Amino acid sequence: MMVSKPVEFRGSALEDLRAFPEAARGEAGYQLDQIQRGREPDDWKPMNAVGRGVREIRIRDAAGAFRVLYVAKFDDAVYVLHCFQKKTQKTSKTDMNLTAQRYRDLLKELGR
């Protein structure tokens, strides 16, 4: 049996996730649970522009499009870097930069 990895939220990611509408929040929780168990989320894409191994969970809901950016390549935990509602087709530079900064901070913290 696969041991479940803990999820660790970086910066304001947990508060941001809690601000999602209930259905989107529930879907994000389900997808993170899949990742914790070593499975792939249902709808994701790599975000290598942010950092190696960073992925984006894509959630579509009646209230709009929501994103959870995370990295799961480390053995100790699944790190959620950023959660936000997507307002346009393209992910904003602000969201990309914030995620990239949190990723760099995480690498420094892990000594990589």
Please name the defining characteristics of this protein:
112 residues, alpha+beta, YaeB-like fold, 5-stranded mixed sheet, 3 helices, 5 strands, HigB-like
Write a brief structural summary.
This is Phage-related protein. By secondary structure, the protein is of the alpha+beta class.
Number of helices: 3
How many separate domains? 1
User: Using only CA atoms, what is the Rg?
Assistant: 13 Å
- From the N-terminal CA to the C-terminal CA, the straight-line distance is 29 Å
- The CATH topology label is YaeB-like fold
Protein name: Phage-related protein
Organism: Bradyrhizobium lablabi
InterPro entries: HigB-like
Architecture overview:
With about 110 residues, the chain is an alpha+beta fold. The protein has one domain (about 5-110): YaeB-like fold (2-Layer Sandwich), CATH 3.30.2310.20. About 35% of the residues lie in helices and about 30% in strands. It has three helices and five strands, in the order E-H-H-E-E-E-E-H. The protein has a five-stranded mixed beta sheet, sandwiched between helices. A hairpin with a 7-residue loop joins strand 2 (about 45) and strand 3 (about 55-60). It is globular and about 40 Å long. The termini are far apart. About 35% of the residues are buried. This is Phage-related protein. It comes from Bradyrhizobium lablabi. Pfam families: Gp49.
